[in-house]
Amino acid sequence: xxxxxxxxxxxxxxxxxxxxxxxxxxxxxxxxxxxxxxxxxxxxxxxxxxxxxxxxxxxxxxxxxxxxxxxxxxxxxxxxxxxxxxxxxxxxxxxxxxxxxxxxxxxxxxxxxxxxxxxxxxxx
Length: 124
Fold this sequence. Notes:
There is one protein chain. By secondary structure, this protein is an all-alpha fold. It has 5 helices and no strands. It is elongated, with a radius of gyration of 19 Å.
């Protein structure tokens, strides 16, 4: 699951960078970036539903917040374009932190389970 999540984040980073280069205007919503963020939200939700771990759900929450920033910009709720562009990329950082922390905790749990199983196999 960790490699799939990392792949989704790499896709989001590269595709978001490429699509934001195409349109560098600060005056309106960037619909190609919204499409990338929505795609990543769907991928993380699917990953979260198939996983027995918690970090895909946390990253899904960050992706949902990123999409909500776009939707707020579309609805013209009075967001300053500079704030929109700042919030647009803000959610990438906690998303990556949740993923890394979740993968570290998963690997620790897996190692402790393997040690426990080895101890039980050697138990008289």
